[in-house]
Write a structure and sequence with these properties.
alpha+beta, globular, Lipocalin, 3 helices, 41% strand, 8-stranded antiparallel β-barrel, 9 strands
Length: 145
């Protein structure tokens, strides 16, 4: 009798598990907008620029460039001095959340990237073939002081 009860419970649990996986409930797509701009603006520090396996530039302090993404779709690129003097490079950006693409357009160039967020709170931008930039960019959030 105990064995029969055990198998009945096991069949019930397996059936419940299988039916919950196959009910046809659509999964929600990830919206990366808030990861880029936190609902207002977000400052990303350009930590590493690489061309393949070759590191072209690495910034471990605040002397490097920053990218500031605004919820409005604007982006600002520059170092702290440029930004404080309002001389940064201003452009627009758009996200393709479904395919994981980011396009940044400045007046004289267009950067197209596929992107990923690594487990270390890094944003890695890989240039596509349509991009005017050929380097991979690694961004980290502006550090807490």
């Amino acid at each position: 009798m105990k064995i029969n009860l055990y198998f009945n419970k096991l069949y019930f649990l397996v059936g419940l598990l299988l039916s919950s996986c196959a009910t046809g409930v659509p999964t929600e797509k990830i919206n990366y907008s808030y990861a880029f701009c936190d609902g207002n603006s977000k400052v990303w520090m350009l930590q590493k620029v690489s061309n393949g396996d070759i590191v072209v530039e690495e910034n471990l302090d605040l002397s490097g460039d920053f990218l500031i993404f605004y919820l409005s779709g604007k982006v600002l690129k520059g170092n702290l001095k440029d930004i404080s003097e309002q001389k940064g490079k201003i452009g627009t950006y758009s996200l393709d959340n479904e395919n994981g693409y980011l396009t940044i357009k400045f007046p004289s160039e267009s950067w197209d990237f596929s992107f990923e967020f690594s487990h270390e709170n890094r944003l890695i931008l890989y240039p596509t073939t349509e991009s005017d930039i050929i380097q991979t960019l690694e961004l980290v959030p502006f550090p807490e002081m």
